[in-house]
Design a protein that fits this description.
This protein is α/β, with parallel strands linked by helices. It folds into 2 domains: about 10-245, Aldolase class I (TIM Barrel, Alpha-Beta Barrel); about 255-320, no CATH class. The chain has 15 helices and 8 strands. Helix 1 (about 20-30) runs antiparallel to helix 12, helix 6 packs parallel to helix 7 and helix 12 (about 255-265) runs antiparallel to helix 15. The longest helix has 14 residues, at about 305-320. Bound molecules: flavin mononucleotide.
């Protein structure tokens, strides 16, 4: 049975960032945000022996496992793995423009072949997990609403309930994946228009949401919002989400957040790199003046695996600075 879950506020999938460890920190900071894994290629998911470290979920629900692939058989297997790992959702990436991903025939280039994407979605679907899609508005320099509508129309035939839209095109050659997050212009109107055409599908708006006020305002017009870089740069913004977006009366104490996170990572030391364990927390210094000295001390402590000293230092830092 699939559970009813709010996707009003989602943290976007981000390779290299939304690791199992980051998701634990995000969950400590916000009970209600809907989380995503990084994109995992279906080949790695199905065949890699060390997949556990990448996809471990550890009850950070609600959470989606995002996959990249277009091999039907692998997608069906990936969906079963997502269920075994207690994910609430399996999401197909049809938005990544990188050359490597294009070579593997997945990501944004799949928008060229809506029938294939429909078949991929059908391969992911079963009655135990929600199968969803994350796509762009289209491909190339020119925005074309008809193309977007025809694409969604084909996918809608699968009975899909939730689609995340990074509301800009992907440009598949000549610009980097990073530039593909800024150069193609955003167009939120296309997402409004598609919702009118397919009112039964939940469309989650993604792209360029850079403050909680903006997210809150957009929620007046859209089913949900998905936020990437704002959270990557400063996860402590999530501290306000349950209050501001979900109207809950809660107060999180920065020291408790740090303590809880260290309680979680300490037993993993030795099994996982200290950098991977600590990196979700290290963006704590984002745009805080005079944090250089802390950063350099932490680097020294990391070399010697001095986890208790790092915890003490971070506690001192949060006592001296307001976060989020
Ligand atoms: C470092 C980084 C890695 C990303 N990795 C993925 C990914 O694995 N899967 C995906 O669908 N999108 C990925 N994205 C795109 C984001 O999910 C999101 O669509 C994009 O950043 C726009 O949202 P924003 O303006 O809120 O950042 C990535 C973005 C960044 C910054």
């Amino acid at each position: 049975m699939k559970k009813e879950i709010s996707r009003k506020f989602c943290v976007a999938p981000m390779m290299g960032y939304t690791t199992p460890y980051a998701r634990k920190l995000y969950r400590i900071l916000s009970k209600n945000s809907f989380l995503f894994s990084e994109m995992i290629a279906t080949k790695s998911l199905v065949y890699s022996k060390s997949k556990h470290n990448i996809i471990d979920n550890d009850f950070n629900n609600p959470v989606a496992l995002q996959v990249g692939g277009s091999e039907i058989d692998e997608l069906t297997k990936a969906s079963k793995i997502a269920i075994d790992y207690n994910y609430d959702e399996i999401n197909l990436n049809v938005g990544c423009p990188s050359k490597a991903v294009q070579k593997g025939s997945f990501g944004a280039c799949l928008m060229r072949d809506k029938i294939l994407v429909r078949n991929c979605m059908e391969a992911l679907q079963n009655d135990k997990i929600e199968a969803t899609l994350k796509c762009r508005l289209g491909l190339g320099k020119d925005l074309n609403y008809e193309f977007f509508e025809e694409f969604i129309d084909e996918i809608s035939k699968t009975g899909i309930k939730i689609i995340y839209v990074h509301a800009r095109n992907a440009i598949l050659s000549g610009i980097s994946p990073q530039a593909n997050r800024t150069i193609p212009p955003l167009n939120y109107e296309f997402v409004k228009k598609i919702k009118i055409k397919f009112p039964k599908i939940t469309f989650i708006l993604n792209g360029g949401i850079d403050s909680l006020d903006k997210a809150d305002n957009l929620l007046k017009e859209f089913d949900g919002v998905m936020v990437g870089r704002m959270i990557k740069n400063n996860p402590f913004i999530l501290k306000e989400v349950d209050k501001k977006i979900f109207k809950e009366k809660i107060k999180l104490v920065d020291e408790t957040i740090i303590n809880n996170y260290f309680d979680y990572i300490k037993p993993k030391l030795g099994l996982e790199s200290i950098f991977r364990l600590l990196s979700p927390l290290l963006s704590i210094f984002f745009s805080v003046p005079h944090s250089k000295i802390y950063k350099s001390k932490i680097n020294d402590y990391m070399k010697d695996q001095q986890i208790n000293l790092i915890e003490e230092l971070l506690l001192k830092f949060v006592n001296e600075n307001k976060l989020g």
